[in-house]
Amino acid sequence: xxxxxxxxxxxxxxxxxxxxxxxxxxxxxxxxxxxxxxxxxxxxxxxxxxxxxxxxxxxxxxxxxxxxxxxxxxxxxxxxxxxxxxxxxxxxxxxxxxxxxxxxxxxxxxxxxxxxxxxxxxxxxxxxxxxxxxxxxxxxxxxxxxxxxxxxxxxxxxxx
Length: 160
Known about the structure:
Blueprint lengths: L1 E3 L5 E8 L2 E6 L2 H5 L6 E11 L6 E10 L8 E7 H14 L19 H19 L2 H6 L3 H6 L11
Antiparallel strand pairs: 1-2, 2-3, 4-5, 5-6
């Protein structure tokens, strides 16, 4: 909890005592340092490929983290919606203790319209932020880090 006193310096409420809060100045590291654990997941740059019935859109997944469950501090990979469907299915089978959020729904009309692609991108980003940020999935999933970080990821590598 951050509070402000007469000065413009932010104060950090260390803990509460019976006499009231004890405050101290925040250190420079607390204000501006790299967080102890951070995870940034961004889904961006959708690209549509192919023609006719063979058309599909894939999305760039950018990951920046210092969480040990992820092998790389920074990564960029591309995945298509069908990869996300497979990934979600595997997560559900891997972990009975975690409620895996839904993916954005299947779209059957105008699925290559810019608005539809953008809505799906936002939904896929929310999905990945939730599952990648879950501590039980970070430590218990065999596919989480690979799906998010491995450019040569293949479903065939995993026998599910």
